[in-house]
Amino acid sequence: MGYGLGAFLLAVGLILALAVNASVQGVDLQMVGWILAIVGALVIVLTAITWNRARGTRTVATRTHADGTQTQEERRSSGF
Question: How far apart are CA 51 and CA 57, in angstroms?
Answer without folding.
Answer: 13
